[in-house]
User: Fold this.
Amino acid sequence: MGRSNAGLLLGLLLLQFNSCLALGGGGAAERGGVFPVVVSTWPFREAVRAAWEVVAAGGIGGSAVDAVVAGCSACEVLRCDGTVGPGGSPDENGETTLDALIMNGTTMEIGAVAAMRYVKDGIKAAKLVMEHTGHTLLVGEKATAFAISMGLAGPTNLSSPESIEKWSNWRQNHCQPNFWKNVVPAGNCGPYYPINVNPVHRTVGEIQGWLQSDNLLEPADSHLKSIINRHNHDTISMAVINKVSNSPNSKLIFLSM
Ligand SMILES: *[C@@H]1O[C@H](CO)[C@@H](O)[C@H](O)[C@H]1NC(C)=O
Ligand SMILES: *[C@@H]1O[C@H](CO)[C@@H](O)[C@H](O)[C@H]1NC(C)=O
Assistant:
């Protein structure tokens, strides 16, 4: 798979996770605009501020990539929205793992980690993948080993009392809501099977109401909310453009965490 295709696919795959994702397209800025620019989804002011400090201090050619890393890292540390970074939303086994993707908007290079365990710096690990490997995506414990070998701290416990509590509350609620669909059992914890394998268990009542459920720990309380709300796509998205929009060093970075 080509790098950019993989990145797009990854972007789609990661949208529902507690991830950090950066995408970019270069040269989109208009002449005469006011730069630098930092934009983020959601009211994560500390993240924008952290990105701004880097890109505004950088002078001509200040690194938009570094600004995105600073902004994203701030959210990882602050656990923005309770989902980003270490201690954020756990998976079905109660474990918090991290996803992150970054793109250099000039070169279109991508680096990403997914389901990374035991390392708390998701976006920094993604940048290391971009800058020091020919890969697009490293996952799981391979991502962990890579990140630690490149100098990031670890192994670290990514759980927090809050993530453990979220998980046990979710277990007590029969593992509802969750990300499964077209499986049985519908209304309780797994193991799950495709409905076609066990047609005898397939009743409308079993699957109704939770087929549209698209977030592990946040109930979708209306049809529209289940399609778009702050809990089922990115957890932070950020765009950074350097001071000089038409210089070769100008970058547009779009970041989603
Ligand atoms: C993007 O990559 C190019 C080529 O390696 C590099 O010169 C530039 O500094 C990178 N951009 C950022 C914002 O890091
Ligand atoms: C990791 O941290 C969580 C939350 O503080 C704690 O419950 C758990 O025991 C820790 N795990 C390990 C292996 O230390």
The longest strand covers residues 110-116. Helices lie at 3-14, 45-57, 64-78, 122-132, 140-149, 161-172, 204-207, 223-227.
